[in-house]
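Chapter summary example.
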Amino acid sequence: MNDLFARHRKVLPDWLALYYDSPLEITHGEGRHVWDADGNRYLDFFGGILTTMTAHALPEVTKAVTEQAGRIIHSSTLYLNRPMVELAERIAKLSQIPDARVFFTTSGTEANDTALLLATAYRRSNTVLAMRNSYHGRSFSAVGITGNRGWSPTSLSPLQTLYVHGGVRTRGPFADLSDADFIAACVEDLRDLLGHTRPPAALIAEPIQGVGGFTSPPDGLYAAFREVLQEHGILWIADEVQTGWGRTGDHFWGWQAHDRSGPPDMLTFAKGIGNGSSIGGVVARAEIMNCLDANSISTFGGTQLTMAAGLANLSYLLEHDLQGNARRVGGLLIERLRAVAAQLGGVREVRGRGLMIGIELVKPGTDEADPQAASAVLEAAREGGLLIGKGGGHNTSALRIAPPLTLTVAEAEEGAAVLERALRGPTQ
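The structure predicted for these 428 residues follows.
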């Protein structure tokens, strides 16, 4: 392993982050478990950054990919592609966006990049509204709208970005308000902002902020925003790269917690739909999707191989009600972790929905972020046989928990026990 780490450092970028003091090589997985090169077995509570959505080595997906690979792997979007059409039909219907069109990409970054292109072309404006503490990918334009300094390596951007309050409920100038007053204050902030700028193209927002540490506003905030946006013709893009496909338990899409004003104009997706295959995409109303007046294709977006994986994975998800499982098992896990947190001075908050759970750590007796404690818990959890993630805004002090949606009650209890032991070390 040390040899592989040395080789990694010699040929790959310094900014390509690795978890753990002694980085981990994962060689194979099954169900909710993975194994490393030394034969150690881990319960996976992060799923390759929320990407292994159903299970590792899910037989239905493996079979579909193997059979498709035996026929044809790729032909590009220049030719008719039956699996692409079939998956697009299913996603268009599930999106609840009227007269929906679907464009497939290879990642969430590219999906958001495409949504920004469509919005700015449709609205003839390069001004974009985004949320503070947000993350939307690593491309030039996606970095330009990211509201998280830790993931923003340049201030250069093709877009003019204006940041709105509301993505983080328990920090910031409105944190002490009630939910209703919080929403009202954020809406007034938005109205005031729009009075000082040229008309923006769109607001892009994650219903639950992923890299930002699984933070979210009160239910209904984006519905209230939507009413203001519609007065100005401004589009709403819901970034569902991490919240989509039932992970939050209560809803299939994160935007449905804010549905009073209807569905978004566009939604972006990726990660879980492919269960590890490279699938991303945009769903938009036809008039928006069709607004481009120049040619465009995708060489690798929607290949037969990835579409076969997506179709099999989506079918499994729906047939086995994994959204319901995320609600039931995730609810138990959140309550178990909140009971532990109540005993620990270093845990500020356990938050989230379904199987998308954040644990924010602070220095005991203060409200100050504690990234060192987060790193220590990450290491201790690994030692205990559990893999989790990290995130956060001003400082990376939130633990991110997002297991495959087939997680059992017994596995949730096992993972919670490991987390409790890990938390009791650095956060007492």
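To summarize the output: Residues 322-341 form the longest helix (20 residues).
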